[in-house]
Amino acid sequence: MMSRMFRFTNKYKRPLHLPRPVLSLISCKMDRWVGKVAIVTGASSGIGAATVQALARVGMTVVGLARRAERVEELKKSLPPDVGSRIHAFRCDVTSEESIVNAFGAVERQLGGVDVLINNAGVSKQSCTLLTPGNSDDLRTVLDTNVMGLVLCTREAFQSMKRRQSAGHIVNINSILGHKYVPFPNLNLYMASKYAVTAITETLRNDLRNEGTKVKVTSISPGIVRTEMIPEGNQFADTPMLDAEDIVGAILYALGTPAHVQVHEVIIKPVGEMA
Ligand SMILES: NC(=O)c1ccc[n+]([C@@H]2O[C@H](COP(=O)([O-])OP(=O)(O)OC[C@H]3O[C@@H](n4cnc5c(N)ncnc54)[C@H](OP(=O)(O)O)[C@@H]3O)[C@@H](O)[C@H]2O)c1
């Protein structure tokens, strides 16, 4: 059972759950979220899958959105029944507004609404430069997923929080590349999409304040993380990398702060990273 979970979540065969003492320490701070509903986008692998597990382990009801919803079902089955039963897998393509509206509508009807949104779904199409002929589909996919998907999921989640007067929390999984230009080849619009996430987070913070709500927004900006997004091969053989659960630790820290404290930005990099 466990090996299935590791194969599913982590190609390097490392477990994606946090050590028990760390989890119990965090659990106390997460008390106010127990029984509340979290939506995690991009829940079928990497950081998203690890986040789904961790939030379910601390007692939240967790909806994992992905196109490959069957992977979220598989993850659910690989966990102890009390944890797995808190996970709900919904198929959703965040490049489609209709798909987003349908998924959030279903969460409203079936689970009563959303209190925490983890905007994690993201792609990097490392197939072309900005100058490559015929690149427009890949460029649009990056913007539609990383920028418009995040904005539209946030809009739907906020409407739910506002309707229910929930002092919710929106966490945007950004990147170190949303703060600093690094000349990686073939990253085309990925960096621009993450710079957009940095600006959108602050715009949202202003919009949320103007709405008079207590909803928080946090940007978490990792350096390189060992997930399916990182191409296999020698290119990164000697590169220090974070693991998905390192990012989960930052998410739980931000969510676990008292109601009056807002973590704006977390930059988290592996020791020795060059960029
Ligand atoms: N890995 C890194 O080095 C790194 C560093 C900094 C930031 N990040 C950010 O971390 C986030 C998670 O990435 P990861 O590293 O965990 O990569 P990953 O393992 O490739 O996971 C990406 C997730 O996004 C989902 N996704 C992609 N397109 C989608 C769509 N149209 N609709 C719904 N879901 C979609 C995928 O699900 P489906 O394919 O099943 O839909 C998958 O679950 C991304 O925002 C990424 O930019 C990653």
TrEMBL record:
The keyword Kinase does not apply. InterPro entries: NAD(P)-bd_dom_sf (IPR036291), SDR_fam (IPR002347). GO terms for molecular function: oxidoreductase activity, acting on the CH-OH group of donors, NAD or NADP as acceptor. Coiled coil: none annotated. Keywords: Oxidoreductase. Belongs to the short-chain dehydrogenases/reductases (SDR) family. This is Dehydrogenase. It comes from Anopheles stephensi.
